[in-house]
Design goal:
238 residues; alpha/beta; 7 strands
């Protein structure tokens, strides 16, 4: 990836940070975007980032300003922004559910709109989604709807953004700081359960997702696709 520049939105931790690390190991440059300036500085120092920008990517004005202010074209943009939305109908806050839809879908579109004049031909936009909402369950209504909608949106964007490529990585459980914060004291039990049940016999980590992201960046025949990475979690009944 020598000579290439990758923007990583959500690059200060987890999958984004590990992707930045792998891009740098392959000779590429990275620009990290994150909300927490302290964590962003730490990540940038660790990976040797070419630049950083601290803002909330769901703010459309700041997102547009960021891409406009880039000093030159970039080769790839990856976004890990967004968190799983668990909202049981019993006690659901409709306004919060609407915000969840708006932020997720609008951010996906916003990155495409704001970056379309900045990404070189044959470069790619890569978004991180999930597989957890593919099975119905209590509290999964909002997440399931977004899980179903994102692949269709990505496929359409791939046509409209061409020759820039657009792809979606659909991850299952990934052992990241975000997962740890969501599960709290249940984290170790979840890790043990996955080690015992997943066909791969281990928990999926940020490095696994990062390796897939880098492959998608480098393989110029991939566009409009949704690529599952869950260690075979969807193959387990129940």
């Amino acid at each position: 990836m020598a000579g290439q520049t990758v923007v990583v939105i959500g690059g200060s931790a987890g999958m984004g940070r590990e992707t930045a690390r792998q891009v740098r190991a392959r000779g590429g440059d990275v620009i990290l975007v994150g909300r927490d300036p302290d964590r962003l500085r730490e990540a940038a120092a660790e990976v040797g980032a070419a630049g950083t920008a601290s803002f909330d990517a769901t703010d459309p004005d700041r997102l547009q300003e960021f891409f406009q202010d880039l000093p030159g074209p970039v080769d790839h943009v990856m976004s890990t922004a967004g968190t799983p939305t668990y909202m049981p109908l019993d006690g659901m806050d409709l306004a919060a559910a609407r915000r969840g839809f708006d932020e997720r879908m609008a951010l996906t579109l916003g990155i495409a709109l704001c970056s379309r004049d900045k990404v070189r031909p044959a470069g790619t936009l890569i978004y991180i989604g999930g597989t957890g909402g593919r099975r119905p369950g209590v509290g999964l209504s909002v997440m399931s709807a977004m899980t179903a909608a994102l692949p269709a949106l990505i496929a359409n964007l791939a046509l409209e953004m061409a020759p820039v490529r657009v792809n979606l990585i659909a991850a299952g459980f990934v052992d990241t700081p975000l997962s740890a914060s969501l599960l709290g004291d249940r984290l170790e039990a979840r890790r043990a359960e996955l080690r015992a049940t997943l066909p791969i016999g281990r928990v999926v980590g940020p490095g696994d997702v990062a390796s897939l992201a880098v492959h998608i960046m480098c393989n110029e025949a991939l566009t409009g696709g949704t690529y599952d990475i869950d260690g075979g979690q969807q193959l387990i009944p129940g």
